[in-house]
Amino acid sequence: MNHGSAVPVARHLVVSCGVLLMVTRMVVRDGGESAFAVFGIDRDSRWSEVRSVGDDAVIFVARWSSVARRPVLKYKMLGNMIYFLDDDMVSDGRFGAYDMRDGTTHDLLSPSSSPVLHNDGDTQATWLFSR
Question: Which range is the signal sequence, renumbered to this chain (predicted)?
Fold first, then answer.
């Protein structure tokens, strides 16, 4: 994806396999779709872009909680994905998955189910994980 046509709207810090990652959510200007760039800290303490989070890993991002999980095969999930929830930083109203392999975004819920999830804006969606 050409990041030049996208505007950063949110950043999330996540630890995956002991590595600090910064996940940047962007909105593409011409289409309004969400796109992502992932950066890791290098040996010189500089951020450098990461092209993959790993075929056995996924990242979940939302305004109130972000986390990386692996291995994903036991959950029958496709790896190298970023799952995201709508938040007040992005008004596209999407709950989706961003595929790091090809830069495509997929809706997790059909647009027809979105009105069922609409609330008054006081409560943001978040990820919940059992221990």
Answer: 1-29
